[in-house]
C-alpha cells in the first residue's frame, strides 16, 4: 500500500466485514508523538496515522492476550516490522491466516537511527540486497578483543534489569523467561555485573538468526545500553556465515536449527 | 531432608593404595543428608552388596552413592541390588574413584581430596535424582533389509529362516549386487555366480521374504520395533504377475546400443531388459530414458510381441507402506570410475579399465564370454599392468582409507590373466600387500610364485598412449621404490584397482532412516569393537560394505551378525530401554518447535493442550520416549529451558558441579588427620 489513506480504507473494510477483530496501527497523540492504537470500531479508522517517526515495532502486540482475544488481527507494518511478523509465523507463534499485514512503505529517514540509515526493507515485500556495516558496528569491529570486552562490560554495568528490552521485543515470546528459572537458576536475577553480563549475552544469543534489527531494545532501554549494536552484529554474522536473513522468508529454514554437511565451520576454533 | 547412604570400596588395593578410603567415608559422613557412610574391601562381592542392601532397608535410604570403579563396570550390579532391597534403581549413582582417581594419581593426600570431591559431587547429584522407570516399547517382529547384494541376501535369509518376515528392498531390477558380476572369488577361485545364484533363488522362493526389486525407500518414521516405512516401487512398465520372463520382448526391442550397467559399460543391452540371465526376479524392466516409445512416442514392439500382454506403458511409481520392527542397511559399495583418474588416462583410453570391468572381461558370462580381449580393438593383451591403491590411501584424492579388497582381487586378476593368456606378463604396482585373512597370504604368494605375477613396489605417475608398430599401446611410467629407479612398462591394458566408496545415495538413505555416517558416507557403527553391526539408532543394523570396504566372507559374516541382532530384538514381545530421555515441561514450552527441527531422531511431536470445552489453548512439544535417544539437542536449543533430560537434569548437573568445590572445614580436618 502506498498511503495511509489506502490503509484506512482497507482497515475499514476488514473491520466492517468482520474479517478481523482488531486493527493495530499508529495514531497521533496530543503532542507530536505517535502512539500505537488499537481499533475495533470501523468508524475510528481515520485515527490511523503514519509518518516517518512511527518507530514502534507493533508486532510485539500480536501475542499479547488482550489483543489476541479479539480474534483475527490486522496490523500496520513497516519493512522491519513485517520481518518480525514473518519471523513469528516461522516460529509457530502466529498462523499466517490469522494475521493481515497492512504494509506501508517507510522512507526510513525519520529520526536518524542507525537501523534506518542502513535499512534495506523500506519496501516491505521487496527487500534490497545490501547490508552495509553501519558506523557503530564498524567502530566495535575496529577495537581489539580486550577493548570490545571492556566496552560491553561498561555498557552492561548500567543495566538495572528492568527487562524492558525483553518486553518490547516481538521475538522474546517465552512465557517464562530463562532469567526467571530457578532450580537451577541459570542467570542471577539481581543487577550484578556477572548477572548482567549473563543476561544481556544470553538474550543476544537467543536472538541469533531471529533478530530482525528493529532496534526497539535499544530504544526501550532506560539507561541507554546499545543492545542494537550487539544484535545487529550477530544478525550480520548469521547472514555472512549462513546466507540467512531473519524474517525475509517465513518458509526458510533457520540456520541454528538446521544442519547441513557443508555448513560453514571456519569460525569454530 | 534426604537420607543418603555412601558406600566406598577399597577395590582390594586398587583404590586404597592411593586413596585413604577410611578418610573418604569419614568425610562423607559429615555431608548434610548423609545418614550412613561406610567402606568395605570389596563392595561388589556378595557380603559387600549385602551391607548396602541392609542399610537401604534399615536406614530407610532414599538415595545411594557407591564410590568405586567405572559405572560401565558395576552400575548395573548395584542398581539391581538396590532394586532387590526395595529402592528405585535410578536413585543410585556411581562415583568413579578408581579410573578417575586412584589409578591416575600417585600422591595419596591429593588423591584422597579428589576422591572426596568426586563422591561429594555425586551425593549432591543424587539429592535430585528422580525415580525413573525403564521404558517398554512393543515390537513388530518384521524386518526390512535395504540392499539385495550378498550382505542383504544373507541377512534376509537368516532372519527369514529364523521365522520372521522380511521385506527386502533392492534399488536395481534384480538382486545379486556386485557379486553377481564377479568372475571368480578369492582365495578359492570358485565361480561367483555359481555360489550366489542359488541364494538369490532361495530369496525369491522363501515364503517369509517379500522382495521389492526396482524399489527404493521413500521415507522412514517411527522408532525401534515400530517403524513405518514407505517404499517407492518404481514403474517397471511391466506387469510382473503376468510376465512369464520368456524374453521375447528383449529379443525384439530395436533399441540395442545402451551401455549395460551389469557389464560395467563393456557390453550392450536393450531398452527393455533383464540385467543378466540369472536375475531375480527374472522379469524385464523398460528403461524409459532410452525406450523409443517413451522418447519418441512410437514403437510399442514389445507390447505387440508379448504373449501374456504384460507390458504396461502407463504404469506409475507406486508407494507401498510396511510396518517394520528392525532395519538392516546393506546398501553396499561402488568403485571410483576410471574417469576419476585422468593421470592414468581413465576415460581417455578404452584399455584403461577398473577392476570391476576386468571382472566382466574375465567372466564366462561376460561380454567376451570370458576371453580376455582389449575393449579398444579386441586384441589379446600380452602385457597387463594392475595398479593397486588407485585412489585409496591417497589424500590428494580425498580418500584416506584402505579399500581392503583390492590387494586380494588384484592378485586374483593377475592369476586369472595368467590362466587365460599363457605367456602373458602381469605387472602389479603396489604400496604394500595387505593379505590378512584365512588363506589370503598363501593366495598372493601363489600369484607371485606359481603364476609369476611381477610385483613392483611403487606408484605409477602417469599412463599415456603410444603407437608401436601400428598398435596403440599404453606406456606406464612409475617408480620401483625397492630398486630406487624409474620403470617404464609398455602394456596392452591397465587395470585400476579403484577405491571403494559407499553407493550413491547412502547418505540420503541414512538421513531418511536417521542414522549417522562418516565423512566418506560410510555408515557409522555404534562401537567399533563391541557393537560393530549396530548403528547408534536403536533398531537400525548394518551389514556389508555400506559400513566400510569389506570382502564377501566379511560381508556375509556381518549380515549374519546383524540378522542375529535382529532376532535377539524380535525374541521378545516388548523391549526395555533406559529411561534417559528428554522431557518437556508443557507449562514452560511455548511451541516454537526448534526442538523438533534439531531432533535427529524425530522424537518430538506436537501436542495440543485443550481446555474442558475442547478448545486448543496452545500447542507444545512432546517427546516420544521410544524414539528419543537422550542426545540433548532439544535441551540445548530450548530458550525457555522447557526441555530437560531424565537422569541428567540441569538441576542434577548444577548440583554435582557445585558439589565439587564446596569443601567444608570439617573435611579439611579429616584429610589432615
In short:
By secondary structure, chain A is of the alpha/beta class.
What does it look like?
The complex is a heterodimer of chains A (269) and B (673). Chain A is α/β, with parallel strands linked by helices and 269 residues long. Chain A folds into two domains: 4-117, no CATH class; 135-255, no CATH class. In chain A, 35% of the residues lie in helices and 9% in strands. Chain A is built from ten helices and four strands; from the N terminus they run αββαβαβααααααα. In chain A, strands 2-1-3-4 form a four-stranded mixed β-sheet. With 673 residues, chain B is α/β, with parallel strands linked by helices. In chain B, 27% of the residues lie in helices and 25% in strands. Chain B has 18 helices and 34 strands. A five-stranded parallel β-sheet of chain B has the order 10-7-6-18-29. In chain B, strands 20-27-21-22-23 form a five-stranded parallel β-sheet. A four-stranded parallel β-sheet of chain B has the order 2-1-3-4, sandwiched between helices. The mean pLDDT of chain B is 94. Chain A binds chain B through residues 91-93, 173-178, 181, 183-184, 186, 206, 253-254, 256-259, 261, and chain B through 507, 587-588, 590-594, 597-598, 619, 637, 639-641, 650-651, 654-655.
Please work out how many helical segments of chain B DSSP would assign.
Answer: 18
- Give the helix level of chain B as a range of percent: 25-40%
Top-tier CATH class of the largest domain in chain B? Alpha Beta
Beta-strand share of residues of chain A: 5-15%
What structural class should be given to the helix and strand makeup of chain B? alpha/beta
- Strands of the biggest beta sheet of chain B: in what spatial order? 10-7-6-18-29
Please state the oligomeric state of the protein chains shown.
heterodimer
Low-confidence stretches of chain B: none
Radius of gyration of chain A: 19 Å
Q: How is the biggest beta sheet of chain A arranged? A: 4 strands, mixed
Of all chain pairs, the largest interface belongs to: A-B, 21 and 19 residues
List how many beta strands of chain A DSSP finds.
4
Question: CATH topology of the largest domain in chain B, which one?
Answer: FAD/NAD(P)-binding domain
Identify low-pLDDT runs of chain A: none
Mean pLDDT of chain B: 94
Amino acid at each position: 500500500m502506498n498511503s495511509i489513506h489506502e490503509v484506512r480504507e482497507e482497515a475499514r473494510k476488514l473491520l466492517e466485514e468482520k474479517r478481523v477483530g482488531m486493527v493495530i496501527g499508529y495514531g497521533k497523540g496530543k503532542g507530536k508523538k505517535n502512539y500505537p492504537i488499537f481499533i475495533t470500531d470501523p468508524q475510528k479508522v481515520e485515527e490511523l496515522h503514519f509518518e516517518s517517526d512511527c518507530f514502534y515495532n507493533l508486532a510485539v502486540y500480536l501475542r499479547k492476550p488482550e489483543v489476541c482475544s479479539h480474534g483475527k488481527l490486522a496490523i500496520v507494518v513497516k519493512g522491519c516490522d513485517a520481518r518480525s511478523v514473518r519471523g513469528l509465523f516461522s516460529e509457530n507463534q502466529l498462523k499466517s491466516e490469522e494475521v493481515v499485514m497492512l504494509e506501508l512503505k517507510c522512507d526510513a529517514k525519520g529520526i536518524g537511527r542507525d537501523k534506518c540509515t542502513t535499512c534495506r526493507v523500506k519496501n516491505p515485500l521487496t527487500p534490497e540486497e545490501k547490508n552495509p556495516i553501519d558506523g557503530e558496528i564498524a567502530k566495535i569491529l575496529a577495537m581489539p578483543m580486550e577493548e570490545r570486552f571492556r566496552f560491553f562490560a561498561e555498557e552492561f554495568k548500567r543495566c538495572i534489569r528492568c527487562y524492558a528490552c525483553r518486553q518490547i521485543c516481538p521475538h522474546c515470546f517465552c512465557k517464562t523467561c530463562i532469567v526467571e528459572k530457578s532450580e537451577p537458576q541459570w542467570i542471577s536475577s539481581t543487577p550484578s555485573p556477572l548477572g548482567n553480563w549473563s543476561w544481556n549475552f544470553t538474550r543476544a544469543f537467543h536472538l541469533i538468526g531471529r533478530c530482525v534489527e528493529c532496534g526497539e531494545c535499544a530504544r526501550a532501554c532506560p539507561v541507554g545500553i546499545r543492545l542494537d549494536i550487539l544484535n545487529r552484529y550477530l544478525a550480520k554474522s548469521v547472514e555472512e556465515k549462513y546466507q540467512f536473513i531473519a524474517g525475509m522468508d517465513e518458509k526458510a529454514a533457520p540456520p541454528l536449527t538446521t544442519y547441513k554437511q557443508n555448513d560453514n565451520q571456519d569460525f569454530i576454533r | 531432608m534426604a537420607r543418603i547412604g555412601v558406600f566406598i570400596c577399597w577395590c582390594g588395593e586398587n583404590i586404597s593404595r592411593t586413596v585413604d578410603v577410611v578418610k573418604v567415608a569419614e568425610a562423607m559422613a559429615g555431608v548434610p543428608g548423609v545418614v550412613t557412610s561406610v567402606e568395605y574391601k570389596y563392595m561388589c562381592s556378595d557380603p559387600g552388596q549385602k551391607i548396602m542392601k541392609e542399610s537401604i532397608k534399615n536406614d530407610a535410604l532414599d538415595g545411594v552413592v557407591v564410590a568405586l570403579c567405572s559405572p560401565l563396570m558395576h552400575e548395573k550390579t548395584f542398581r539391581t541390588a538396590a532394586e532387590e532391597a526395595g529402592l528405585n534403581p535410578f536413585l543410585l549413582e556411581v562415583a568413579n574413584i578408581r579410573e578417575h582417581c586412584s589409578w591416575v594419581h600417585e600422591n595419596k593426600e591429593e588423591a584422597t581430596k579428589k576422591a572426596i570431591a568426586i563422591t561429594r559431587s555425586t551425593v549432591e547429584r543424587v539429592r535430585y535424582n528422580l525415580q525413573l522407570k525403564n521404558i517398554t516399547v512393543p515390537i513388530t517382529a518384521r524386518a526390512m533389509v535395504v540392499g539385495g547384494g550378498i550382505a542383504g541376501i544373507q541377512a534376509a535369509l537368516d532372519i527369514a529362516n529364523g521365522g520372521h518376515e522380511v521385506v527386502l528392498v533392492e534399488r536395481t531390477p534384480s538382486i545379486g549386487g556386485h557379486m553377481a558380476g564377479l568372475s571368480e572369488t578369492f582365495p578359492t577361485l570358485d565361480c561367483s555366480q555359481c555360489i550366489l545364484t542359488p541364494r538369490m533363488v532361495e530369496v525369491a522362493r522363501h515364503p517369509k521374504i517379500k522382495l521389492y526389486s526396482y524399489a527404493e525407500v521413500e521415507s522412514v518414521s517411527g522408532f525401534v520395533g515400530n517403524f513405518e516405512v514407505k517404499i517407492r516401487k518404481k514403474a517397471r512398465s511391466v506387469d510382473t504377475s503376468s510376465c512369464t520372463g520368456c524374453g521375447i520382448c528383449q529379443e525384439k526391442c530395436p533399441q540395442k546400443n545402451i551401455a549395460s550397467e551389469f557389464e560395467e559399460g563393456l557390453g550392450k543391452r536393450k531398452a527393455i531388459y533383464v540385467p543378466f540371465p540369472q536375475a531375480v526376479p527374472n522379469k524385464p524392466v523398460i528403461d524409459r530414458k532410452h525406450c523409443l516409445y517413451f522418447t519418441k512416442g512410437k514403437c510399442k514392439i514389445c507390447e505387440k510381441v508379448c504373449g501374456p500382454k504384460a507390458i504396461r506403458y502407463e504404469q506409475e511409481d507406486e508407494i507401498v507402506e510396511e510396518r517394520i520392527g528392525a532395519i538392516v542397511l546393506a546398501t553396499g559399495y561402488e568403485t571410483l570410475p576410471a574417469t576419476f583418474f585422468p593421470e592414468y588416462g581413465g576415460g581417455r583410453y578404452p584399455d584403461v579399465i577398473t577392476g570391476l570391468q576386468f571382472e566382466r572381461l574375465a567372466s564366462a558370462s561376460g561380454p567376451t564370454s570370458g576371453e580376455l580381449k582389449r575393449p579398444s580393438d579386441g586384441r589379446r593383451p600380452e602385457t597387463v599392468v594392475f595398479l593397486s591403491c588407485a585412489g585409496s590411501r591417497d589424500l590428494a584424492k580425498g580418500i584416506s582409507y584402505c579399500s581392503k579388497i583390492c590387494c586380494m582381487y588384484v592378485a586374483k586378476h593377475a592369476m586369472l590373466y595368467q590362466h587365460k593368456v599363457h605367456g602373458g606378463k602381469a605387472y602389479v604396482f603396489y604400496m604394500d600387500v595387505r593379505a590378512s585373512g584365512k588363506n589370503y597370504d598363501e593366495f598372493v604368494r601363489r600369484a607371485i610364485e606359481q603364476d609369476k605375477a611381477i610385483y613392483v613396489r611403487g606408484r605409477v605417475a602417469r599412463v599415456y598412449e603410444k603407437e608401436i608398430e601400428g598398435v596403440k599401446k599404453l606406456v606406464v611410467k612409475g617408480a620401483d621404490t625397492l630398486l630406487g629407479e624409474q620403470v617404464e612398462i609398455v602394456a596392452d591394458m591397465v587395470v585400476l584397482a579403484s577405491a571403494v566408496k559407499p553407493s550413491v545415495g547412502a547418505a540420503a538413505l541414512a538421513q531418511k532412516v536417521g542414522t549417522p555416517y562418516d565423512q566418506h558416507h560410510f555408515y557409522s557403527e555404534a562401537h567399533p569393537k563391541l557393537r560393530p553391526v549396530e548403528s547408534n539408532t536403536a533398531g537400525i543394523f548394518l551389514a556389508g560394505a555400506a559400513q566400510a570396504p569389506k570382502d564377501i566372507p566379511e560381508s556375509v559374516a556381518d549380515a549374519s551378525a546383524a540378522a542375529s541382532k535382529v532376532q535377539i530384538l524380535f525374541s521378545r514381545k516388548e523391549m526395555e530401554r533406559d529411561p534417559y530421555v528428554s522431557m518437556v515441561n508443557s507449562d514452560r514450552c511455548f511451541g516454537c518447535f526448534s526442538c523438533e527441527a534439531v531432533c535427529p531422531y524425530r522424537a518430538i511431536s506436537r501436542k495440543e493442550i485443550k481446555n474442558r470445552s475442547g478448545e486448543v489453548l496452545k500447542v507444545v512439544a512432546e517427546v516420544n520416549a521410544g524414539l528419543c535417544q537422550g542426545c540433548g539437542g532439544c535441551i540445548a536449543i530450548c530458550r525457555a529451558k522447557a526441555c530437560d533430560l531424565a537422569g541428567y537434569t540441569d538441576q542434577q548437573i548444577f548440583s554435582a558441579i557445585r558439589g565439587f568445590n564446596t569443601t567444608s572445614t570439617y573435611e579439611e580436618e579429616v584429610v589432615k588427620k
